[in-house]
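dude i think i finally got it to work??
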Amino acid sequence: MHRDPKQWAYVRRLILEEGQSRRGVSRNTGLSRNTIRKMLKSPQPPHRDITRFAHLVFCKKYLPQPTFSATSTNRLAS
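look at this
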C-alpha cells in the first residue's frame, strides 16, 4: 500500500470531491483498485511500524558496513 500523504490526498480528492470513478482513477494513476479502496477507508495513510525493526538497532554494530571508495573498480567498460 502506498504511504505517500500527497498521493493519498490526491486520490481521495479526485474521487470524493471531483466525483471521478474509482476505476478511472485506478487506470490514470496505475494504482490497484484495492489500494484505492483502502485509501478511501482512511483519511490518512497508515504510519510505518518501526517496532518491527527495533531489533536491528542492537545488531547494527555487528553488521558489516558498506564501504565506498573514490575510485570504483566496478565500472562498466564503455
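The chain has a mean pLDDT of 79.
im so relieved honestly
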